[in-house]
């Protein structure tokens, strides 16, 4: 059937190919599509009717997704994608090759994705009107197609066999792999799983139970999605109904919230009416209520740890994730990532029970199943309350049907639903206080009286002689203690997800610390390879000296970055804490640091610089507000921003970082950071806050805008020596174009240049109260909020 369709297609549309693909027709060997906004004809290839397109969709400034989408509707809905976890920079190409089929590579030629075609005889590629993109031979035999390699969506006429998988995306706008999976297993069972453990039967939250007979998963043109046996018998109807043929587009998708839904859209040309759910073809989504369907022994449930799930009251009834009272989101940009307590947990010190420092917040019809560690029957609610308050391990108590369940952190499978019943009692510290109460157990020494020395016949002479004997001994002990501290391992908390290496392992991985990547104040960074594959490259930072400050730098870096997880922070893979050796092992960043990239011989594109600015802003926003312990980096500068293979910017070097308690907004600390990027409060001996990072980011931002360093004493024009002075002068004079006059891309995007300049001027305000938070700055840069007119940034610029 496929070959017949192909034959008709090729009669109607022969192969008019060129070295750069056209918007109609096919791709031949050697031809390509280019991610380039300047020439839209090179971005995509359309199906004969123009209903579907294959090519590049822009996902942000300077970043592109290789995808298939509905072309004739306003929102260009994507139905398949290749590189969701590794977006392509501008200038990337997808090319049809004889060896691997489709190959996506960045402007430097590095492969980002490949279809991995192993069969020979490839002649061309074509976009079909079914939404299927195929690679075929000269005699029209299908060698590879997108229908056989789905992402999160299936389309009418698509048929999936045993072993096929449909993965939910990470979020509504992030097309990397998410938390849920729909698969037809080899045993014939069609199952919905959380992706963390897709082979554990107890973890399935929806299944057909068709063991041994399920053969093919089919989406027919009438709008019916069903499971069939080998002889064609319908075993299970996933969604059913009738759709008027030819009048509507259809798609079925496993959405990022873990629910499989079906949608329809009128086929009127460029219709803006949107996708409708709940059409006659759909009786309910699958599952109907994911909040109550996931009951896992491990993992997070429908939402993240320490959160709970409710169904929305709109037509879609999309599950929504919430934090209980006293808790806040781990990642403010993604509510499904879970929550953390906003207070210090109850002390388990037996002498300080702190019972009077906590109260219980009531929540009806709320529960976290599988978080229980103790249950008591035939109890009253008052007994349950007192038992939880007196138990330092109890984070939540559930009282239901005269039973009292105690639950511990992390809370999993959270849901609020009328079917749950009962009352959850959430333990929260009073006034979110982080102070430790002395409690009733602290003993007071009221009954102790001073001991009166009645008669001490020791002479001053004896006392002085004893003192003279003790002093040399104490000095000797002091030196021994110092030497001992320098030779024994630093005491650090074990970091979750990090590995401990031996010094010999890292010496072998770096080939004797042979290839140097960079050098800093506290040590040198070398390239290493774990195992035999070059793809396992790492960066190994060796602390050079064994001073007290370098020991503190090691502790700070492991403690700070070990508690973080964000796409714009360099990942700490492990460390060596052996004898006198202190080494840190990071993911390898193949494109080096931003200073070399930005201030090198060739100017990076304007759109790439914008993307880097947004990357750094998002990373800082996470450090300040998103992670468990708020972190002030204290040394934001281009040298500490690294670029990975796809030029994604990641913040590194946490050696000077300052960790704050949950209730802290500022702290006092010694002078740290790099001149030229330092906020004024560093020079005024003031308490520092996250606003010092905001100031440093402002300096970094003007450097990204103008593609030059903040301080250039050799500038031809004296007014341009200090960059921030010149930037403000140009803004005040209404001549922002002067800042980018030699940059054609930026000059043609002057509206965004001005937005970035205004944002930078807000960042470098001398009054720290005027500087926005990094979350607000991120919104300014992305255009989510308007940027008001900034005041004069500084009365006197503090520079190098």
CATH superfamily of the largest domain: Transferase(Phosphotransferase) domain 1
Number of domains: 5
- As for the CATH topology of the largest domain, it is Transferase(Phosphotransferase), domain 1
Radius of gyration: 31 Å
Give the amount of beta strand, in percent. 25-35%
What ranges have pLDDT less than 50 throughout 5 or more consecutive residues? 1-23, 278-283, 432-459, 479-496, 660-672, 794-800
What's the main sheet like? 6 strands, mixed
Output the structural class: alpha+beta
- Overall pLDDT score: 80
Annotation, overall tally of beta strands = 47
Q: Give the class-level CATH name of the largest domain.
A: Mainly Alpha
Number of helical regions? 13
How would you sum up this structure, described in words?
This protein is of the alpha+beta class and 800 residues long. The chain folds into five domains: 1-149, Bulb-type lectin domain (Agglutinin, subunit A, Orthogonal Prism); 157-253 and 281-288, Agglutinin, subunit A, CATH 2.90.10; 308-432, no CATH class; 499-587, 2-Layer Sandwich (Phosphorylase Kinase, domain 1), CATH 3.30.200.20; 594-782, Transferase(Phosphotransferase), domain 1 (Orthogonal Bundle), CATH 1.10.510. The protein is 19% helix and 26% strand. The strands form 14 sheets. Strands 36-40-41-39-38-37 form a six-stranded mixed sheet, with helices on both faces. Strands 3, 4, 5, 6 and 7 form a five-stranded antiparallel sheet that branches. Strands 29-35-32-33-31 form a five-stranded antiparallel sheet, covered by helices on one side. β40 and β41 (581-587) form a beta hairpin. α8 (606-626) packs antiparallel against α9, α8 (606-626) runs antiparallel to α13 (774-782) and α9 (691-706) packs antiparallel against α12. It is globular, with a radius of gyration of 31 Å.
